[in-house]
Each structure stands twice: as C-alpha cells, then as structure tokens.
Specification:
Blueprint lengths: L17 E4 L2 H12 L2 E7 L5 E8 L2 E7 L9 H4 L5 E5 L3 H10 L4 E7 L4 E7 L5 E7 L5 H6 L3
Parallel strand pairs: 1-4, 5-8
Antiparallel strand pairs: 2-3, 3-4, 6-7, 7-8
Length: about 150
C-alpha cells in the first residue's frame, strides 16, 4: 500500500506507550505537576470526553486515555495489579527523587545504583501505574550482567 503521509506520524516513535486512567483529567494534572511532563495534542469527543492526550518529556511522549475505551484496558486502580512499567531516563535523578519524596509520592524502591549502571527509583502514580525513573551513570559490559543473579 502506497502511503503519502509519514508513518509513524511526525513526533511519534514506532512504539508509544498508552496508559489507561479512570480520571484522565486528574491524571494529566497529577503527571504534569509531579513529573513535569508537558501536555501535547489532546483529542476529545464532541461531548468533551477524552479520547487520548499526549504527555511529553524531552523528545519522548506517551499517551493517556480513559480506561473505558477498551474492555481489557483498565487502570491498575481498578485491577490492583500492573502488567507493565514505564521506564523514563532523566538527567538528574537525585534532585527529582528528593522533590517527589517531599511531595509524599509513594516510592516503592528508593534511589540507588543498579547492576545495569543506572541510578534508579520506582514509584506508583495517582492510579497505581508503576514508573521507573533512572539516569545512566556507567556502561556495564553485557558479559558482566550475565554473571549477576537476579
């Protein structure tokens, strides 16, 4: 099939995560406030209900959408479990971590150096999505990784 428009669309990557929330508007506000994401394109129905919204960090983006769009896509707030995690590379994990701790965000795994050469921490957002924020500080040889028992 001949295609005259770019695929994927401009600004999108080949793989784009989409997270489902019970309250999309609150989730957008929460994610912008605590994680400093910027809001991109927003699509709503004629009734003003969210179809999706883009959130950006540097050159990357992900989508948020209502958990009513697909029968099998629900917020972890509803299911009480996660089937995914969002992994975000940032430039200053220490100050970002300290900011979130001061904001009383639910931290699951404190900031620390990991076997892969990253400084990381893990947390839950306002509806229970699992996020990992990290900063790569050392290149680790893949052969050395194989020696590590997880």
């Amino acid at each position: 099939m001949e295609n005259s428009v770019p695929n994927p669309p401009k600004g999108m990557s080949r793989i784009t995560p989409q997270l489902f929330y019970s309250d999309v508007e609150y989730a957008i506000e929460w994610l912008q406030s605590h994680f400093e994401f910027s809001l991109g394109e927003v699509a709503k129905t004629s009734a003003g209900e969210y179809i999706y919204a883009e959130l950006h960090i540097n050159e990357s983006l992900f989508l948020v959408a209502p958990d009513t769009r697909f029968e099998l896509a629900k917020s972890p707030k509803i299911n009480t479990y996660n089937s995914q995690s969002i992994h975000v590379y940032i430039d200053n994990t220490e100050s970002f971590y300290e900011k979130l701790v001061e904001e009383d965000i639910t931290i699951l795994e404190p900031l620390g150096r990991r076997f892969c050469g990253d400084m990381t921490f893990r947390l839950l957002d306002c509806e229970g999505h699992l996020w990992t924020f990290c900063q790569h500080i050392e290149d680790v040889d893949v052969e050395k990784l194989a020696e590590i028992t997880l």
